[in-house]
Amino acid sequence: MPPRQSKTDSRAVTVLFKKHKTTVLLMLQPHESLYFVKKRLLDALKSRNITNINGDIVPDSTSDVEFGEPVDRADLEKGWKRLQADVPGMDNEGAPKRNMNQNDSPTVMEADLENGYSIAFRFHKSTEDQSGGLDMDLDGEDPGWDVIMPTYEDEPEEQ
Questions:
Q1: DSSP-based three-state secondary structure for 9
Q2: Where is region (Disordered) located (predicted)?
């Protein structure tokens, strides 16, 4: 009898998603859309009963999740910038699409995510606008990325 083949694609990449002191490791297929990756990230957080990270409530919608890439992959301490593949496209009237669906979303391969890459994530904060609807704070000042990288320095000894 021949050995059983693993159902995992050998082209799969392992990506580390970081927010504050939380890291979620996901194995992704190159053809998966970023929309689906966001869904998997939210599912992973909810499966561990994580309802908030450093005071930010874990949303129910993938449209409330944003990814960031390192400014310098060799030095993550230099900070993060919005993942260009995660920037919404334009609708028919030239306005940015706010709710990206899986048909609009690029794939892991198109986003150039490779094995071992670290990606920051953050949640959009919804505010109620004057008309009573919800307005996402996307166009305002960039709130930054809440990522704390672990250090390996010894703590000073108390005397």
A1: coil
A2: 86-107, 128-159
Q: Please write the tens of the pLDDT for every residue from 86-137.
A: 766 544 444 445 555 556 789 999 999 999 999 999 998 654 343 444 444 4
- Rounded Cα gap, residues 149 and 18, in angstroms: 9
Which residues, 6+ apart, have CB-to-CB distance to 60 below 8 Å? 42
Residue 155 confidence (pLDDT) above 80: no
What does DSSP say about strands 56-57 and 52-53: parallel, antiparallel, or unpaired? Answer: antiparallel
What Å distances lie between residue 117 and 14, 25, 52, 69, 75, CA to CA? Answer: 8, 10, 24, 9, 12
Euclidean distance between CA atoms 124 and 58, whole angstroms: 10
- Strand bridging mode 134-136 / 52-53: unpaired
Give the N- to C-terminal CA distance of the chain in Å, as an integer.
66
pTM for this structure? 0.73
Q: Which domains does the chain have, with CATH numbers?
A: 13-90+99-123 (3.10.20.90)
How many angstroms separate the CA atoms of 38 and 15, rounded?
12
